[in-house]
Amino acid sequence: MKDSYFLLFIVLFLTSFSTWSSQSCNNKNCLLESNISGKKSERVNIDGGALKVCSTDPMTGYTRSGYCDYSPSDRGEHFVCAQVSEEFLTYTKKMGNDLSTPNPRYGFKGLVPGDRWCLCVSRVIEANKSGIPLEVIRSATHIKSNF
Description:
CATH architecture of the largest domain: 2-Layer Sandwich
Structural class: alpha+beta
CATH topology of the largest domain: Phenylalanyl-tRNA Synthetase, Chain B, domain 1
Helix content: 25-40%
Number of domains: 2
CATH superfamily of the largest domain: Protein of unknown function DUF2237
CATH class of the largest domain: Alpha Beta
Strand content: 5-15%
Oligomer: single chain
């Protein structure tokens, strides 16, 4: 009898989850929106050409494809491919996003000056306003960056 109730619970749970997960979610904290396997927009750079790879060593991009792609779940808008400097790495660490310290848990070896990385549009604007040097790679920066 216990097995029957357990099986019924599992069926009801899965049915509820399936119905819930198929609904559109506009909530900022909705975990379902973090699905990065959705349809990608066309890969176009800010000059109107084909979007080039930003970096594969280290592997970058919100979806870790090497491209600064658009993804509907990317709230940070990691569209700008830039070659980072020591000054930028120090600045972004001070601002709360440490990109230079390795994080083996995520296979992240940490960035060093000269690495290319897909950055958030807002961080690039902040750094620019603060006078922080940042070389933007136009051919690998997504058109949605609005630069």
